[in-house]
């Protein structure tokens, strides 16, 4: 017997859960398959950036997130960088990955996603009209069929391997060891480049010390599993001279500077998000934030695409996010060289430090790392916000606050006499788009803006312009209305 659903998401880490939640907001039936039986206890990522926090705010998730610590100072390759940007969520927000995963798990399942733990995918077959997934669970083989599948199963993606999706880029040349350790007392180290290697040590309020260490010139070899704590102890001593052998490791892992990007984020009816689409060295939390933003870009598009009228919209996922991924991987490669390169990079670090002190350079790097400077290809037009996220307009945000939480697009009307016209134009798409009267705002310029569910402006118009073409482009064929 083959079980039917609309979308199958493989992987229930933060990225898979995010895309499943977005699909549910769009009205799609979703089954999430995860081979782990419990949420991971390893908080590999611990940083959320401004754009991700804006998304969480739009979805009403911040109250449940609590009050994470916020820091304005980040880094670029270990060189201090002020991450101040034009956002209410400027800077770094320190949230353990376990907490992010718990939050998104609760949100997604409350929305009605069917999360199945202990299911291991063993085959994926796209027959052109749908995708059949074979999974093993409770000692039995199960068959499921969906219109689309999303591979959100991480760096070692089973879905990617089964489909033979091609990754291009650079193989690993350097490796770092990482561990969370209790029972040690060592001084903090923030991106220290020492004579023999690179070291980081940061202790959290619970008394757990996060260590990262790399010994210069150490080659990357094949591993059959995670490194031992004894290897971390030995390498830490070689690099810093400190003995941490009396500590106890909560978990240990190794990661490297592999830099690879899927050639295509879409393979037929299968889409890839997060580390399944791009492999990179963790640097300032960019990998997790990149993946979460992949998920928000894709989720609403797949929900629209289920009616079969929006294939161009589905292709836009690759067109938009592949370019962003390529740019982020490039900055991470530069940072990796600055962090882990030998003495030959010191002159480059000094010059870059001087450049970062220039406001234009600082703002450019902060916008890229935080995700607030992303600009997608948009419809022709002169409005400066086209393709960019809607700027933080407090009164407008308050007026339209419920709409993003429901995963709907917003048609903002900034002139009261125009709102009735907009409602008439939007009516065939009213199941996807809400018209909101925002009142006059001199910063806007035009009297109407169409904002996608992920917060990006895709159409701007004045009284003699109709939004019908933009609505069809982004939300498929209109529905008949009485």
Automatic annotation (TrEMBL):
Keyword Flavoprotein in annotation: yes
InterPro entries: FAD-bd (IPR002938), FAD/NAD-bd_sf (IPR036188), RIFMO-like (IPR050641)
Domain called FAD-binding: residue spans: 5-330
Keyword terms of this UniProt record: FAD, Flavoprotein, Monooxygenase, Oxidoreductase
Molecular function per GO: monooxygenase activity
Pfam family, one: Rng_hyd_C
Cofactor(s) essential for the protein: FAD
Protein name from the UniProt record: FAD-dependent monooxygenase
